[in-house]
Amino acid sequence: MQRIGTRRSRAIAACYLFCASQVKHPTFVRYILSRSLAFLAVILPVVATAQTAAPQLTANPIFEKQCAKCHGKTAEGRHFAGPSLVSGKSTSLSEEELRNIISNGKGRMPKYAGKLTPEEIDTLVHQITQARGK
Question: Of 62, 86, 87, 134, which is the most buried if we count CB atoms within 10 A?
């Protein structure tokens, strides 16, 4: 974490020096940079949390092998692939609906009834509902 903070500090200092040398109103530059720092202070914890939104689910070897290629390594979904499992429309699905979709497939999602045991499907359903906070 220290390395990231150091790089960020250097980048901000470089921007400040460049802007201050180019703009005749350094007070305005300081104002903009202070607002940018406040924004970063608020948004960085949110980004860090999003990366670890579903640790129990994403640590599951079944998820890694069968689900992550479409739903992403953090279960947040992938562009033009599977949707997020922990936010968005999928959070309104019941456990039974999730179990049915995993078993029989839906849309572009293939069925996993023959590839996974009922216990493995139940484990995935339980971990998905836990990860999304239901």
Answer: 86
The domain tally of the chain equals 2
Task: Provide the β-strand partners of residue 109.
Answer: 106
Q: 66 with 83, same domain?
A: yes
Asked if residue 68 and residue 47 are part of one domain, the reply reads no
Residue pLDDT, tens place only, 20-71:
665 566 676 677 767 766 666 666 555 554 445 566 677 888 888 888 888 8
Alpha-carbon gap, residue 31 to 75, rounded angstroms: 38
Q: How far is residue 109's CA from residue 11's CA, in Å, rounded to a whole number?
A: 43
pTM beyond 0.85 = no
